[in-house]
């Protein structure tokens, strides 16, 4: 990312957000800690797999025991599928809250739990401001520190839509430093 930053269509909000998210994740992996945590993604994958499992079970059961016999099992599987879909929606909107990167800073002695750094972002529709939040959770004390910034998109892309990685890097490192200063 640092050597060859992407060039995107500046008018495509999703492309802008994804490019800035990728740059932020790259900065976190290079300058904060290099071990990525996939717990949130794994949770989403497990919930989705369970929903698909209910669907597949309903399909197989209906194949083995055609409709009149499988009615109650089909109804149960449909209800379970929609419950899992509701849980998935809750997970993405309440638990993840736009988190796109989580990295772990392990204790060198491996006695204390790892410190967790996460980044979340959002861009409102038709807005030119990228809202970035960096969160730190101390593994030992479970204390949470957070720092946010509103970054105008035009400062981080040139006229041709090429990402200005060094500017993004400076902003992410400023957020990290402000969190570190809050801890002291």
TrEMBL record:
Family: Belongs to the SPCS2 family.
Principal localisation: endoplasmic reticulum
Organism superkingdom: Eukaryota
Keywords: Endoplasmic reticulum, Membrane, Transmembrane, Transmembrane helix
Keyword set includes Membrane: yes
Keyword presence, Transmembrane: yes
Organism for this UniProt entry: Hyalella azteca (Amphipod)
Gene Ontology cellular-component terms listed: signal peptidase complex
Transmembrane segments: 45-65, 71-90
Protein's UniProt name: Signal peptidase complex subunit 2
